[in-house]
Amino acid sequence: MYKIAVLPGDGIGVEVMAAAKEVLTAVCNQVGSVRLAFTDYPAGATAYQETGTALSDETIRACEQADAILLGAMGLPHIRYKDGTEISPQLDLREHLELYAGVRPIRPLKGLSPRLADPRAAKIDFVLVREQTEGLFSERGKTQVKDDAEARDALVITRKRSERVFDFAFRLAQRRRERGRAGRVTCVDKANVLGSMAFFRRIFEERTKRFAGIMADSAYVDAMALNLVMKPWDYDVLVTENMFGDILSDLSAALVGGMGMAPSGDIGDQHALFQPAHGSAPDIAGTGHANPTAMLLSAAMMLEWLGDRNGDAAAHEAAGRLDSAVERAFAGGRVVPYEFGGTSGTADITRAVVASLTTGGATSGSPSKW
């Protein structure tokens, strides 16, 4: 029995989380030997508005004690801290639990209209790994404002935290190579301008020597933004700083249909949190139009991580079945989300994925691509 701390959050986070629970329950019942115990906890902008606390001590303790964390979406544009920033307790959790690797798998699903006209776009399959505990985000809440005329935030790069995220990226590339991918890691930086980024690249080049057989190269972030539009199928694993990763992850999601198709995991050595890459989308909350696909794929990532961490073949089986069920639901063209010009909402997509679990039979699902 795995204890799952559930943080539905705000807006459509609540809706896609309900979909994830339904699908996770279905796939675990199908596999038979995986059980998940969900417990909901308050966090986010609504919690802040109601209690004055966006992330309570109770919620933090529950996340510390859970086997994994599922998060829907947090933040609402009209509810902010006194300094004008949005409510984002997920960032506090990253720092508190040392969830240093932000993992963003990028791959298209068959059956949906491609965002890029080039037929090679069907082969997009890369993972963006974002360092999440320092970089430019490390100065969050520490901005120095001088005489209302100047504001400064520092970019912080440390050897220890850079080494561990690079090693994570190389291990991921090794795993992907075993599944038929290239086995290549690309460091994304701005080493031609900033000394901190030159330091970041130098550490990367040092770590490459520890992973024989894995190709390694580097690219400037501006060139990478160009290349991710021009030839995203060329890449395997990208690793980068916090702010650069935040920006490139949204660009990457657009390549495969948008934020509703983009899962993510925030992973550390002891804890992991899984969430869709999208926000709370208050403009469509309550309409039933929210696309739960990113949340469902994030749930599959969670199952695979639980399988890895606990040596649990059944959790791996459930992850593969869920991942494959999502693929089958879209490949048949039965569901088309609103952002693709269709009329399939949260309930439609959830039903289609549950039905695909059944039609998939007892065969083992394909392994998750991340």
What's the SSE blueprint?
Layout: E1 2-9, H1 12-31, E2 36-40, H2 45-51, H3 57-65, E3 68-73, H4 89-96, E4 101-106, E5 126-131, E6 144-146, E7 150-152, H5 159-178, E8 184-189, H6 195-208, E9 215-220, H7 221-230, E10 237-240, H8 242-255, E11 263-267, E12 272-276, H9 293-310, H10 313-331, H11 346-359
Helix pairs in contact: 1-9, 1-10, 1-11, 5-6, 7-8, 9-10, 10-11
How would you portray this structure in words?
The protein is of the alpha/beta class and 370 residues long. It folds into 2 domains: 207 residues, Isopropylmalate Dehydrogenase (3-Layer(aba) Sandwich); 140 residues, 3-Layer(aba) Sandwich (Isopropylmalate Dehydrogenase), CATH 3.40.718.10. The chain has 11 helices and 12 strands. It has a 10-stranded mixed beta sheet with strand order 2-1-3-12-11-4-5-10-8-9, sandwiched between helices. Strands 6-7 form a two-stranded antiparallel sheet. β1, α1 and β2 form a beta-alpha-beta unit. The two termini are 24 Å apart.
Enumerate the strands of the largest sheet in spatial order, edge to edge or round the barrel: 2-1-3-12-11-4-5-10-8-9
Roughly what is the average pLDDT, rounded to an integer?
A: 94
Instruction: Label the overall shape.
Output: globular
Radius of gyration: 20 Å
Q: What does the main sheet amount to?
A: 10 strands, mixed
* Low-pLDDT ranges: none
Q: How many extended strands? A: 12
Which class of the largest domain in CATH terms? Alpha Beta
What's the number of structural domains? Answer: 2
Please name the fourth-level CATH homologous superfamily of the largest domain: Isopropylmalate Dehydrogenase
According to CATH, what is the topology of the largest domain? Answer: Isopropylmalate Dehydrogenase
* CATH architecture identity of the largest domain: 3-Layer(aba) Sandwich
Our count of helices gives 11
SSE string, helix = H, strand = E? EHEHHEHEEEEHEHEHEHEEHHH
Assembly category: single chain
